[in-house]
Amino acid sequence: MKKYAYYLGCTIPFRESNYDLSTRKVMDNLDVELVDLEGAGCCGLYYEQINELTHLAMSARVISMAESLGLDLMVLCNGCNGSLVKARNKLVENSELRDKVNEILADIDREFRGTSEIKHVIRILYEDIGIDEIKKTVKNPLNVKVAAHYGCHLLKPSEQIKFDDPREPKSLDELIEVTGAKSVDYFDKNLCCGGFVLGADKDIAYNMTGQKLQNVKDVGADLMITACPFCHVMYDANQRAIENELQKKFGIPVLHYPQLLGLAMGFNARDLALEQNRVRVNPGIFDS
Q: Which of helix, strand or coil describes residue 5?
C-alpha cells in the first residue's frame, strides 16, 4: 500500500470539497492511504511576491509536518504545488535561508529538513501508480469527449517542477483516456484560466476564462477536466457570471479529474459529490 501525507490547502476545504471527497474515493480504490495533516494551514502562496521569508516559513511548516510522518506530501492544488516545490528547492539549496526559517519554526517545535518530496495528485497517479494499474480499476469505460485543462502550476516553472513537457503535456490527457473517454485538443489549451488575474481585473480574467470555454465548446467537448481547485472555480463556479458578462452561453460541465476517474471506477454521482458542481452534470452523458 502506498501512503502519503495529504494536504488540501485553503481553497478546497472552503469552496471545492468535491475535489477532496472524490480524491479520497479513488485513492482508497487504488489502495493508497492518505494521512490528513491536522491544522496544516496555508502554503504561503500569496506571500511569495510580498515577503520571501514569510512564504518560506509557511511552506516549510507544512512540509515539516509530512517529514515528521516520514511521508511524501500529496497536494491537490496547482498553486500549492508550485509554492511548496519552489520553497522546498530554495531551502534545500540555500543553507542560510534554511537556518533563518528553522529559527522561526523552532518556536513551534518544528524543523525543515528537506526529506519529503512534494507531489501533485496528477503526478502521483501518472508516475507513482501508473496508467496500467489505474486501468485495472476501470469498470465502467466512459464514452465522452473531454477537454483537459492542466493549469499553470502543475507544470510550471518547469525547471522547478520537473514534471511532463510544459509545451506539449500528455499526463492528464492519458489519465483521461484510461477512463475510456477521448481527450480532445483545442486552441490555446495550455493557456491560464485567468484566476490569478481576477483580483486585479475581473473583466480581463472573465475574458480569459470565457475564451477558453468557447474554444472547448468549438471542438464539441462534452465536458472539461481540471486538476486545480481555483481553475475549477473559474470554469465551473464562475461560468454563469462569465456567460452573463460576455452575453454567451457555454453550458459546459467541469469536473475535477478524480470525479471522472471515479465514474469510470463505478462510483455513483453522489459518491463523488457531483451535486456540488455548479454547472449541472447529467450522468447520462457518460453512457451515450
A: strand
